Amino acid sequence: MIKVAIVGGTGYTGVELLRLLTAHPQVELTAITSRALAGTPVAELFPSLRGHCDLAFCEPDPEQLGACDLVFFATPHGVAQAQVPALIERGVRVIDLSADFRLQDIPTWEQWYGQQHAAPELAQQAVYGLPEVNRADIAGAQLLACPGCYPTAIQLGWIPLLEAGLVDPEQLIASAASGASGAGRQGKTELLLAENSDNFRAYAASGHRHLPEIEQGLRRVQPDGSRAPRVTFVPHLLPMVRGIHATLFAKLQSSESTQELQQLFESRYRDEAFVDVLPVGSHPQTRSVRGTNMCRISVMQPQGRDTVLVLSVIDNLAKGASAQAVQSMNIMFGLNETLGLESPALLP
Amino acid sequence: MIKVAIVGGTGYTGVELLRLLTAHPQVELTAITSRALAGTPVAELFPSLRGHCDLAFCEPDPEQLGACDLVFFATPHGVAQAQVPALIERGVRVIDLSADFRLQDIPTWEQWYGQQHAAPELAQQAVYGLPEVNRADIAGAQLLACPGCYPTAIQLGWIPLLEAGLVDPEQLIASAASGASGAGRQGKTELLLAENSDNFRAYAASGHRHLPEIEQGLRRVQPDGSRAPRVTFVPHLLPMVRGIHATLFAKLQSSESTQELQQLFESRYRDEAFVDVLPVGSHPQTRSVRGTNMCRISVMQPQGRDTVLVLSVIDNLAKGASAQAVQSMNIMFGLNETLGLESPALLP
Amino acid sequence: MIKVAIVGGTGYTGVELLRLLTAHPQVELTAITSRALAGTPVAELFPSLRGHCDLAFCEPDPEQLGACDLVFFATPHGVAQAQVPALIERGVRVIDLSADFRLQDIPTWEQWYGQQHAAPELAQQAVYGLPEVNRADIAGAQLLACPGCYPTAIQLGWIPLLEAGLVDPEQLIASAASGASGAGRQGKTELLLAENSDNFRAYAASGHRHLPEIEQGLRRVQPDGSRAPRVTFVPHLLPMVRGIHATLFAKLQSSESTQELQQLFESRYRDEAFVDVLPVGSHPQTRSVRGTNMCRISVMQPQGRDTVLVLSVIDNLAKGASAQAVQSMNIMFGLNETLGLESPALLP
Amino acid sequence: MIKVAIVGGTGYTGVELLRLLTAHPQVELTAITSRALAGTPVAELFPSLRGHCDLAFCEPDPEQLGACDLVFFATPHGVAQAQVPALIERGVRVIDLSADFRLQDIPTWEQWYGQQHAAPELAQQAVYGLPEVNRADIAGAQLLACPGCYPTAIQLGWIPLLEAGLVDPEQLIASAASGASGAGRQGKTELLLAENSDNFRAYAASGHRHLPEIEQGLRRVQPDGSRAPRVTFVPHLLPMVRGIHATLFAKLQSSESTQELQQLFESRYRDEAFVDVLPVGSHPQTRSVRGTNMCRISVMQPQGRDTVLVLSVIDNLAKGASAQAVQSMNIMFGLNETLGLESPALLP
Fold first, then answer.
1. Which chains sit next to D, with 3 or more Cβ pairs under 8 A?
2. Number of structural domains found in chain B
């Protein structure tokens, strides 16, 4: 059994981790911290966990965390970089669901997050936790940076095309939309049901923090990596709870048929348990992955022109955060990669 | 392994059964029938099942069904009563999720469903599948009638009060609301998203088919059973997918304190894995049971007056249909009652 | 033209007032106050008003307010009672949309709102603004207390029965549900879309502040008024923006036929522009009154038993708040009661 | 008063026309036809119109329609082209909300709609009813083809850029999303609330019928019109009722600053009552135009790169259909263009 603790469990990635870890056959959950709610039973905050989790939130205790095999951080950015170094020193492995260790270029991180990075050297060591790209590195990682939700959906959608050098990396366009759980559990007027139900809007269109992560990830998968990808990325807020849908446009550099594109995607993801390439002509639906670690993808070539369209859906809290973290945990600890992640989506 | 078939799997109770049975460790799913879609892969209709179910819908074949240990009917009313007798004769056990065998009084059934009952003698043998009331009978059932969604939420809410004789059975009021999946997967204008989103309405307030089932069930649990319960039952349609919320009012016949009521409920359901009595002062939320077989219940006494209020929530497709059917299957086949039904709710 | 100001215009009743008053042919809107947003253009906060309202929020200025014919208060409770006395003294008429002057019994008010009332004598003078009950008093009111949303839907549903003495006033049961806009525009976790979409729950079931207002109103309309009504009132939160649906149960004291009940309602509301009694067998939908001052009502007698069921719907921000305030304004200033309130509902 | 009839009033564009026309001060509504519902009062189908419309649906009667000044067609494609010629001959003016007369190239129409066009010569005479582009022609039109919903939002978003020749017309990308009312009122499984709530998906991504209309419209506004625009257009279905949001990407051919782009848009639409260019940095919300004839637009240049991003929102049933039809009617009959279209949006 892996001894596990969660730092910062009162948000949506926290409760999703709890849902998955309490049911995981190889995990012993020993602590879940929250300064604000220390002493409150977890199941009081999240009644869905009544009968599944007997823990109460507790103050973070270095001794307790240090005695774990693995600590998840489900905290706002800035927290993990302050607390992780001490854990790493003690030999504890860490999976950080926040943005703290996703970017390797520290000035870029500091520019987008508006603060100094507290552990720049660790950022260099951190392994980016997208198993479909760097499974081997994940296996040996001590510090794992779990990808953002948009970056997961978008990278998985474009990776086959960029690896094969089929599209112009400087003309990438991503129009993506997320359910409101992606914006977190904090009480903000702009996230109220009364503000967002029967409503749709873009946000942060002039620059979203996931942009540099997307461009970093796409750069790595190119055959030579010399051309810096340029992505126009527009996120939107959907009047629903869970799900990310990425609508991805790229310019073909050579003439490929729809069949060839389909085969490229199918062959790229043949051995991936959590990426499902849909048949030609399908449109993936976010509900088809609700609550699961799946990414479902369609590729098409509208009107037979030179723009290749990829549609990619994930659950923002699952493959976009907590379930992908569990997938990486499975890899890090030599377990079957799908352990605890086998349930089909809840549909309808 | 239990050899199982599903008759009529293209509706929402069908896909929910598939979600649960494909993940059930003791079930071998051998066939799922649909005349209209025979030949179509199940996962084409329900993309959430891609990778989980390789079956295609097939024509119902008496030989194939007859070779099963258990056949589920997830069909509109009228279908099971025509096909079940032949299966029963062959010794196959049957769980019917439709209304065909829920009422033991045949004239009542015929009045509410507007047609002649095709197997009235079987209706007498059928066991009503509410494990919290008649677990022992379920264990030995050959034909099990799975309760309706509203009747499950409502009976579980009132059973402790009626068993204890604390309330007037002739003054029962149930105001209940269901997510739209309760109305089925048929294309009807009145069920469109454009008709129901940002909208709320009652329906069938002058008489819903679940009323006689509710009254029949409540009659049985009374200490003497002599007084026929009279329920005013008003169902409503919620602008959401899953969940039933029952708001139940009854008149106390003696003076009980809130504490005594709370203790009554806690003690009644202490050994039930799927009924959760919330702490005093709580309000159950439908999402806290989403996708699960749980019923969560609160009991209170507003203003300390003589009306006792019970709030009861279930997932209409799970405890209100398919998961409850699996619970009964577990009992019928001597398995652990919670097998395959352990996952926490998807929240948010 | 009536010179009008609004105190506290940043909430939902505020923006709804602005929507109605900017289009009202007899109103000159001179000021809208907000300490927090003073200086911010109204249309910046509410882009729906771009091109319709050129005002900016301003600090409340006693001189400016004192020069108005009418001041609306769209503030949290406690604010109006502090500021209204000075305006009344200057001869300004006031319509208060908050709860400050709805209850005439001050100890009751203080008990439910947990604070001392700052203007108890004014509470006695205040006219309760339900035109269908006390239109004549409204015409001469200097201080008008606009009813709450639930109390409006519930009183209009029961008034015909209580006026006629047909039902037992001590056995009234109201199960009601509101869209999330009823809970206001403040950023609270429990009002997030991610917490409430695809979810339904009761709240404040052991006692909601609208209860004493409902019981006060129902007492007044009884033929003798001697029996204090006792209402069990359970509010619920709907996963939608606008609309209140009240499901009302009462016990008939004599035997009335459905036809007689229908006629009673039709005759009671024949001359009311904003109460619409639906044909026998109908179920009102909240969307059928969206954005309007209408209340639509159905009355029925399920199973021909002795419980009379009334279904009543309003738009919580319109007939439940701002549009009803405008209706009262029209009466107070001798205008046609429907002026500025004629638009049909937005459906779908 | 303009004598008006509506052919085919049982769909959403029909009820929206009724909402607007019953409140229009210069319109006398004389008939609304529906073969299927002939005899049924309009207000029975659409309870929002109780008290606003006393008409019943009637069989289409050539004499009655022929006696009108104006007939609206709110029918599926194929109907208007069969019935319009007779009306035109009698001198009746016609506004067709269907797709029948939107495309001037008949082979293109026949290819996309899969049937022979019944009145190709009329298609040549028909005026395309986008007032912001061809107001003068609309004034004199006898037969007006009302634009589609997506084409309205998309053309208004791109027109300033194409007129000014600033972007490459062959690299246009439109990712757009519509509320479910855009798909009509027919009972189809794929439009159920239970299928679409908490779900998001693209559809018809390989080719939607609005594509040729968009490309036709964009071709016309170019300075020389010689380069055929090529648009990649991906529509999506939103879990909400009303609203279209278009996210538009184009490649700048010269270097413009954000300020210059903003000025271009503001100057282009300065005199348009129904196009609102938002301040720099804003993101339009669909709810800000709900129920209105407004189009709200933002323009930006993410990361200062060479892709110009335009966000454009309309109400698909209003500016995307019925309200735009009324706007054209106002122009055709010499009325103030905004008559009957002045109400602010319903927000929240």
1. A, B, C
2. 2
